[in-house]
Amino acid sequence: MRQALRVNPRRQRVSQTASIPAPAQGWDATNPISQIKPENAVQLDNWTCRPGYVEVRKGYTEWSGEFADPVETLLVWRGPASEKMFAAVSTRIYDVTTETTILTTALGSLTNARWQYVNFSTAGGHFLITVNGADTPRKYDGSSWAVTAITGSGLTAADLIHVMAHKERLFFLEKDSLSFWYLGINAIAGAASEFPLGDILPKGGNLVTFGTWSVDGGQGQDDLAVFVSSEGEAAVYQGLDPGDATEWALVGVFDVGIPLGRRSLIKWGGDLALITSDGVVPLSTIILADRSQASRAALTGRIQNGFADLARRSLSSFGWQALAYPKGNLVIVNAPYQAGSAYWQLVMNSITGAWSRWKGINALCWAILNDEIYFGGLTHVCRADRGSADAGEPITADLTGAYLDYGSRGRWKQFKMMRPIFVTNRRVIPAIEMVTDFSTLDPIAEQTEVTSNENNWGVGLWGVALWGSDDEVVKDWISITGNGIVGAPRVRVVTQGGGARTAVDNEIKLYSFDLLYETGEVL
Fold first, then answer.
1. In angstroms, rounded to a whole number, what is the distance separating the alpha carbons of residues 503 and 395?
2. Which of 106, 112, 200, 469 has the highest count of CB atoms within 10 angstroms of its CB?
3. DSSP secondary-structure letter at 159?
4. What are 59's strand-pairing partners?
């Protein structure tokens, strides 16, 4: 009987070094843990991927509140020279354009706070058109709110639950219906016409969301209208006037996966991307490929297992939203983890396509105001991507790199020292260790405490001293422990806290790791 090879750690050991990059290509929640590449990570929580490095995500400060109920919608009016933002909370809408602790009610006596909206300009002005499926549609013209009267044969205007602008018309979805409604050219009120889609959507259900697909990246005559049902079917139309059969034609009906809420569409260059049960999928991919293949080309392809876990957990929960944040070169997918109490964000660098996961930002909705990013939380409107703390509370960032054999496949290794290359402008306390032999079994699990006795939360790393300041490059060797066949670097950083409305930058960037380890001989 052939005896299995084993390593005798008491034999002579050979010292070796290795260098690996920071996981700038992001979180890998698709490949087997043993096949993750050096430039990817098993776990990447509260880090942001940048070209060539990763950095601890920025925090947020309180902007307005405190509210007694969650902020479920942020509405932004965009005029020719200014912008205004409103927060929908329970039965009221508040003006939150400026930072304040004093709540100013703009609109009251409403039924719910889950509004959909669109900005629409006509010769009469610049309007914010809003619907919520329970109250009469409202409009805002830059100075005041008013009812916008929409009528139609068999239509109850309060049942309109979604709105979009398409080719100089306003289109609406009716709740619990497979029909959409549309107004005349450049109209914001008046008689709406119905266009039923029940005969071309065989799976039934109701229309959940819709959008304009600018195939060439701009707005023009070739733009397509996309209507997505609760059963995962998308009807795509081209043309100008749904009331004229010669000016409105069906392109096709496609299986796209179940949409995760009414805020599940996002413009993606010349494409539309849809948050579905299969991932965040560009519509061009769905049309050109079978749905069973679409997940491979999804924007979330690199984190498919992590995304699917969240989708299964919160498929029908409120809080799903996709948002492009151009200033930060990020795409943010907001996801309910525990609806009503905990929300996560899946965050993609729009340049590299690398993903990470943010925790601790309990956002129900997001919006961009004057190029800055805001979210509606459980009790406040907050300004995000700002400072180094979450409303004064420290941020915990956790990173576990790829498990590698460092060119010595099958050999036992004793990891001795690590030299992470950081750039930081303020002092922090990092915890650094080497985890071995896939001890992080579930790459999407909650982060756990570092267990090494020598390097637990700053004890035994740089002693108990703080380190780094004034944009310093930190590249000291640190003693570590860890024995195994493969190993992965793990870094945990806790930023400094502060005031709930005070933003203090604390940049922490990680570029690479150097390792010193010994290998044993194979018997």
1. 13
2. 106
3. G
4. none
3-class secondary-structure state, position 438: coil
Please list the residues that pair with 336 across neighbouring strands: 343
- The predicted pLDDT at position 113 comes to 98
Cα–Cα distance between 338 and 320 in angstroms, integer?
12
According to DSSP, the residues that pair with 249 across neighbouring strands are: 238
Residue 214 is predicted with a pLDDT of 82
Read off the DSSP letter of residue 308.
H
Q: Residue 470 has what pLDDT?
A: 52
Distances (CA, A) of 119 to 76, 128, 168, 369, 514: 8, 5, 12, 13, 52
For 50-68, what is each residue's pLDDT tens digit?
A: 999 999 999 999 999 899 9
Distances (CA, A) of 160 to 75, 108, 135, 164, 279: 17, 19, 9, 12, 28
- Structure tokens given for 181: 């409604």
8-state DSSP, 230: T
* Spans of the chain below 50 pLDDT: 1-5, 7, 10, 217, 220, 441-469, 523
d(CA 130, CA 161): 9
Q: Which long-range contacts (CB under 8 A, 24 or more apart) does 198-204 make?
A: 200/235, 200/250, 200/253, 201/229, 201/231, 201/233, 201/235, 201/253, 202/233, 203/229, 203/231, 203/232, 203/233, 204/178, 204/229, 204/231
| The residue to which tokens 């942001």 are assigned | 48
Residues paired with residue 239 on neighbouring β-strands, in sequence order: 248
Cα-based angle 227, 232, 233 (whole degrees, multiple of 5)? 50
Distances (CA, A) of 446 to 45, 212, 238, 400: 9, 38, 46, 12
Q: How is residue 234 annotated by DSSP?
A: E
Q: Which residues pair with 513 in a beta bridge?
A: 20, 420
Contacts of 390 (CB under 8 A, 6+ apart): 59, 60, 360, 361
- At CA 302, angle to CA 47 and CA 507, rounded to 5? 15
